[in-house]
Amino acid sequence: MNAPTIDVSALTDVATLSTPRLRLEPLSIAHLEGVWAGLFDEETMRLTGTRQVFTREAVVRHLESLATRDDRADWAIIDLETEEYVGEIVLNEMDADAASMNFRIALNPGRLGRGFGTEATRAVLDYAFDRIRLHRVSLDVFSFNPRAQRSSEKAGFRHEGRQRDTMFWDGEWVDSILMAVLSTDERPLAP
Questions:
Q1: I need a surface site. Which of 8, 33, 40, 60 has the fewest CB within 10 A?
Q2: Does 46 have pLDDT greater than 90?
Q3: For 1-18, what is each residue's pLDDT tens digit?
Q4: Per-residue exposure over 118-146, b if at least 16 CB sit within 10 Å of its own CB, e if not
Q5: How far is 120 from 23, CA to CA, in rounded Å?
């Protein structure tokens, strides 16, 4: 078997992806207000385990840097019906030798429970395997977030394990659920 070879050009020139209800466009400074709103929502911060306090200047620098990165792909999730920013979805932490990347998604307040996360995740996984040519995409989700676990499973992620006490939040230790999908796994059909 040949060593895996990823297509880095798919990271330096991130494509816009389309689904029946969403447009995933390269995340940029144009999405600053939507990103900013999500960074201060208490529930979003809890679900993602975010404790960092962000400055507007740091967020601007981050968004401006994304277009030149060759080790990640970031998308803004846009609701086609309203043209509103729904959240962001990211492939990061590239391991080129293993043809693998980490996956994360954060939906803004009021956007949960509508299937946007699963729909966007399926599109990004197709891009990861068909365009970037990754072999593995992995994530971890906190045990107090079964909604994200179910959404990830619907998109094709499989449960791989549990890390105990990975975060201390609201006076309690929380476990992380490890999940991954391989290029060789059967992809679920969209409903």
A1: 33
A2: no
A3: 676 789 999 998 999 999
A4: bbbbbbbbebbbebbebbbbbbbbbbbbe
A5: 8
